[in-house]
Amino acid sequence: MNAFGFEPQQDLATSQGRTGIIHTPHGDIATPAFTPVGTKATIKAVLPEAMAELGAQALLANAYHLFLQPGSDIVDEAGGLSRFMNWPGPTFTDSGGFQVMSLGSGHKKVISMSLADSAPDAADGARPREIYSTVGKSVGKSAGKSGKLVQVDDDGVTFTSHLDGGRRRFTPEVSMRIQHELGADIMFCFDELTTLSDPRAYQELSLARTTAWAQRCLDEHVRLTGERTHRPYQALFGVVQGAHYEDLRRKAVRDLVALRATDGSGFDGYGIGGALEKENLGTIVGWVCEELPADKPRHLLGISEPDDFFAAIENGADTFDCVSPARVARNAALYTRSGRFNVNTAANRRNFGPVDEGCDCYTCTHYTRAYLHHLFKSKEINANTLATIHNERFIVRLVDDIRASIAGDYFADLKADFLGRYYATRSSLG
Ligand SMILES: [Zn+2]
Q1: Which 8-state DSSP code applies to residue 342?
Q2: Cα(392) to centroid of ligand 1, in Å?
Q3: Distance from the CA of 306 to the center of ligand 1, in angstroms?
Q4: Burial of 284 (C-beta count, 10 Å sphere; 0-12/13-18/19+)
Q5: What is the pLDDT of residue 131?
Q6: How many separate helices (H) and strands (E) can be counted in the chain?
Q7: How much is the pTM?
Q8: Mean pLDDT, 10 residues at a time, the chain of 430 residues
Q9: Cα separations (Å) of 213 from 31, 200, 217, 228, 421?
């Protein structure tokens, strides 16, 4: 019997929002929950002990990065991700699909495809898709003279390692093996990421490919689970693609929910993936969650700003991961309930108040804006530590507050109050 499961608890009366509990071999997650991202099995500049102290319930690491360094076999030998990184709680790994296709840069901005002249070929699936970097930074360097980085075909994806420039290949089976070796409680199927600029014909082709890959992931997952009985059960989530097309999103869910492995098992939960524009994030999550079974958890892959959490939760998502709190913190951009500000600006030089009045994090209860300003100006690495602790706590607490508001039936009031204050000045740094 596996130790994974989900218990829906309370529903919002007016929408699909809900609370629940995800059970994993490394502990429970009360949902909705925010899952901070420790890409390389570490939250940059912050120890796992501090992440636990600030209320993080689970962490998400990245299969692509850990495959390249240190190697998933080493994490396996260490006893799995949780033991390797000294995080006793639940962990997630993503499949590596996003990273092999975007190589860690902003997908929408740096990737263009050689599809303009190949849509008819793409539609019949005969010709592999090739992705080139156009304006990427690190991507540009490793692209070499040709600029060719990634080749997607029906079997998998061939890409160039951003570390050593060597060619590597991911298939659904390879992603499953890597994620089993990493040993996270929750894993995701290897899928193809499309961009919003891909034509509809390509979205259809890609979706069929992602569904076929999901079946292969499920089969390989069941095989590896049977082989690795010395390890705690790992849950596998199918990933819903389909861009901004309602019919494709709904079909994607129905197809995934119907998939079965040879032993009759299906997915333990579902991820909602793909390039989502802020304006239609809630709508797309809503379509998907209407089709998904209520007794399985739903994870929204990648999210960015505080209002996104309200939209996603209101429409039925249970967990979320996001690199933004840590990433913007390292650029001195800090969240407050009155919006985001940059502590590097001169106005903070003699500000001896906390980053955010009312914040209960370690940074706000021990340090001032003036001190953080000084650390950033002098390029001291503790600036990153203190800023990241605050931003991660801010988002963890926001989602905790939203969870409490669903349980206490005041979600709409919290949403209006929070968004009214957060966006009142529109002073955020974008
Ligand atoms: Zn704080």
Answers
A1: E
A2: 9
A3: 15
A4: buried
A5: 59
A6: 18, 18
A7: 0.90
A8: 87 92 98 97 98 98 95 98 98 90 46 36 46 39 50 90 87 98 98 88 95 98 96 97 96 98 96 88 96 98 87 97 95 97 98 97 98 98 98 97 96 96 67
A9: 28, 20, 6, 22, 44
Q: β-strand 339-342 against 333-336: which pairing, if any?
A: antiparallel
Q: What letter would DSSP give residue 153?
A: -
User: Any long-range contacts for 164-169 (C-beta under 8 Å, 24+ apart)?
Assistant: 168/68, 168/100
3-class DSSP assignment, residue 388:
helix
Bridge partners of residue 91, in order along the sequence: 59
**Residue from 7, 4, 50, 48 nearest 26 by CA:** 4
Query: How many angstroms separate the alpha carbon of residue 271 from the centre of ligand 1?
Result: 30
**Helix or strand (DSSP H, E) at 359:** none
DSSP letters, 160-212, are E-TTT--EEEE-HHHHHHHHHHHT-SEEE-------TTS-HHHHHHHHHHHHH
In angstroms, rounded to a whole number, what is the distance separating the alpha carbons of residues 117 and 72?
A: 38
Provide the residues around ligand 1 (an ion) whose CB is within 5 A. Answer: 359, 361, 363-364, 390
**Residue 31 region by backbone torsions, left for phi larger than 0, else alpha for psi between -120 and 50, else beta:** beta
CB 200 within 8 A of CB 141: no
For the chain, first and last CA: distance in Å? 47
* Centroid of ligand 1 to alpha carbon of 93 (angstroms): 27
Find the 387 Cα to ligand 1 centroid distance in Å: 8
Give the distance (Å) from ligand 1 centre to CA of residue 361: 4
CA torsion sign for 410, 416, 418, 419 is: positive
- Which helix or strand (DSSP H or E) is residue 387 part of? helix 382-407
Residue 22: which H helix or E strand, with range? strand 18-24
Q: Which two tokens mark 205? A: 């082709």
CA 386 to ligand 1 center in whole angstroms: 9
- Which residues are identified as catalytic? 94, 321
Cβ 75 vs Cβ 66: under 8 Å: yes
Radius of gyration of the chain from Cα atoms? 21
Tell me, what DSSP letter sits at residue 282? H
From residue 250, alpha-carbon distances to 244, 254, 260, 335, 352 in Å are 11, 6, 18, 35, 52
Rounded to the nearest 10 degrees, how much is the dihedral formed by the CA atoms of 79, 83, 85, 88?
A: 150
CA 425 to centroid of ligand 1, rounded, Å = 20
Element (H, E) at 79: none
Bond preceding residue 32 cis, omega within 30 of 0 = yes
